[in-house]
Structures are given as structure tokens and as C-alpha cells.
Amino acid sequence: EAFMGREGTGKRFLTNKTSDCYSAVYSDTGFTMVFNNCVLNGSENVNGTLDIVYSVNESSSGFTSTFTDFYVGATKLNGSRTFTTSATDNANEVAFTIDSNMSITLEGGEIITVEGTKTTTLIFSNENIAFTFSGTWTLVENGDTYIVAVTEDLSAVLGCEYISKGKFTLSKNGLEVLVDFGDGTCDNKAEIIYPNGKIEEITL
Question: What φ, ψ does residue 3 adopt, rounded to 5°?
């Protein structure tokens, strides 16, 4: 109801709305919601401000969510996430991209930051539906910095529960390994390649 900006009947748009849980103000490009220490869909109490801004052009559409001192229980969120659906040069493909720049403050004061971009592409053909995954993202937690960077698109085919092809690097505080999922064969194996050249096969 809040997301659509409509009354419970769904018959007309509102310029603003107030309930026991939140107040919302709508505009042509999105809306702003201020939550008032309420239980939302069975969650812990929710407080803070959420801004949603929509964007639409010829080849893509999406929205950006911005959290300002947004609490779920004792956990605080600040920052933004952008969700975009876009067409590609191939008419049989559609891509979903998430751009994140978020900080999460836990009850004890620990701060976790997440920043980066992840893209999932669906590829439709007469034979099957395939998925590819790409992007780079950084997670900082407990003083440790983790960076994942896809160097060769990870791919999977509908019906196979494993990623079967592609490579990404994973680093922790500068120590980096390469993970190789293979040649496209559907199996539960991958290889980790260490900086000294050692190769270790792992089971997914």
C-alpha cells in the first residue's frame, strides 16, 4: 500500500499518507517515508527515514533506496542501494543490477560497510535459460576488508544447481586468491589458485 502510494482501495494516488506505523509524502519521482517505532511485517521495531527515487529511460528502469538513520531493532542502516533492470544489445537478454553503498551499525557499535556493483543477466534461448553474474564489491567487517571481483563472468544454466563457468578473485586484507569454476560442465567442483601458483580443488 505504501509502495504504490494508494489508499487501501487502490483507487487513487495520494500526496501524503499517515498511519500508526509511518508517514509518507509522495512526489512525481518517488516518495519519502518516516517510520515511527512500529512492527513491520513481523520485523523488530522500525524507525527512521527511507527515500525512494524512480528512474526510467529508453533502455532501463529502476529505483534508488536511501536509508537515513534507519533502524530495524537496534541495527542502524545508512546509505543507498540502486536497483536497475535494463536491456542489453542482445534481444534475448535482460540484466538486473544492484549498486550498493551502505553502512550497517550493529547493536554493539560494530560498523559493517558494503560497497559495489552486482549484475545478473538472464539469457533466453531455444535450448535453455542461462544466468551470468558479474561485478565487484567490497565488504569491511571487524577491521577486515574483503574484495570480490569477477574477472570472467560466472555462468550457470537453469537445471544445474552449481555455477559451472567463470572466475573471480577474492582478497582479504590484500591477500588474493583466484577461484575458477571450470569449462561449463555442470559439477560441484571448483579450483582455488593461490598466489604461489598452488591449485586446490574444492567441493561446492
Answer: -60, -40
User: Once rounded to an integer, what is the mean pLDDT over residues 63-85?
Assistant: 96
Residue environment code for 32-48, b if the CB has 16+ CB neighbours within 10 A, otherwise e: bbbbeeeeeeeeeebbb
Q: How confident is the model at residue 19 (pLDDT cuts 50, 70, 90)?
A: confident
User: Taking Cα atoms as reference points, which of 185, 127, 126 lies closest to residue 155?
Assistant: 185
Q: Is 189 exposed, middle or buried (0-12, 13-18, 19+ CB in 10 A)?
A: middle
Contact 129, 120 (CB under 8 A): no
Q: How far apart are CA 190 and CA 155, in angstroms?
A: 13
Torsion angles phi and psi, residue 196, rounded to 5: -85, 5
pLDDT at residue 14 is higher than 60: no
DSSP output for 55-87: EE-SSEEEEEEEEEEEEETTEEEEEEEEEEEEE
